[in-house]
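ok posting inputs for the uracil job
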Amino acid sequence: MDARAIIARKRDGERLSGDQIRWFANGLANGAVTDAQAGAFAMAVLLNGMDEDERVALTLAMRDSGDVQNWDYPGPVLDKHSTGGIGDNVSLMLAPALAVCGAYVPMISGRGLGHTGGTLDKLDAIPGYRTEVSVADMRKVVGEVGCAIVGASGNIAPADKRLYAIRDVTGTVESPDLITASILSKKLAAGLEGLVLDVKTGSGAFLSQPEEAVALAKALVSVAGGAGCKTAALITDMNEPLASSAGNALEVANAVAFLRGDAIDSRLWDVTVALGGVLLEIGGLCERAAEGQAMIAAAFQSGAATECFGRMVAALGGPTNFVERSGDYLPKAHVVGEIEAPKAGFVTAIDGRALGLAVVGLGGGRQKQGDPLDYAVGLDQLAGLGAHVQAGDPIAVVHAADADALAQAKATVLAAYTLGDVPGDEAPLIVKRIG
Ligand code: URA
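and the output
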């Protein structure tokens, strides 16, 4: 087979056979496909789409491009995955809460993609924390602690690992077919028994329209279910950041404040608890999601999830007193400045993608493959939709490497905020459940 012929077929809007898709996925993993060919393939799929059979074939071929795990734990092996958002640090809190409730959570996460943040980049802000571990180490940590949030190291879905990094820098992230194959190849290779997907919709999501998010959720639930992993999806709002912080170390600090009960963003709490409830139901740890939500809330309120998070950080090489002393460990930006509201009013719209790109522009995300990150930079104290501000009140705080970057981020963030005389309509946070 020939990569050029496969790319040209998709470029011309034709269907690919299972064999062609498997060949391409293997070529991504073994190097027979070049970066340029992978980028062109991704663009052809983005522009011309795939049908259900092609999507299933690509997902399974990417899963089978590496090892498929098999765990042997005394409880259900569960995980959650988000399609990507801004200020979305749910995984940091949810993984330990699920573990406290009796689940085993080998959470294989990704790096930042396009304008959205990535869980692994956030965890890399913790000194010593190893996001790249062997499967044997991951098995040990999950067995002892109940959860481990790490990267798809070793040989887990290597085809996705490569394509993900190429999509990130070729404008090809927003393809529902590629998102489906990317998310599910990793998750299915992780040998899960149950999965909950947080499918984002709104200005900060890859797919901004609710009907696109619903279509993606249905595709994800059906492909995962067909591959033997019980799966449900929640469509959740991403018209504003979920946490009040966006940026790697800042989101870790926000997660620690949540876990310690020092400061809890209410939307973040609601989404975390809702996802956890569904997953405990899927995993058979409770009868109904509502009961599961109460279990997750209790895991936070009792401090057990906080303690579990601390043990996970330590087991993966981070400081043993990280939860108590995170402020001493997390990197800090050189310059910090408030962004002031230019006039009084209600926040009626936030361009989430622009906020994400502001974080990338500060150095908190990648402009091109392999770019090093500045973990300290980002935004916090972000005003939410419906907030009322007076002229001169802060709507966000920028953490930057220097004064120029600070000025640029201020301009981007100001342009991303719309202030009006009356509050806008409130969109539901959890739009619907699929599956
Ligand atoms: N998360 C992934 O793992 N892959 C995508 O393509 C989007 C979100």
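notes: The domain at 332-420 is CATH 3.90.1170.30 (Aldehyde Oxidoreductase; domain 3). The chain is about 50% helix and 15% strand.
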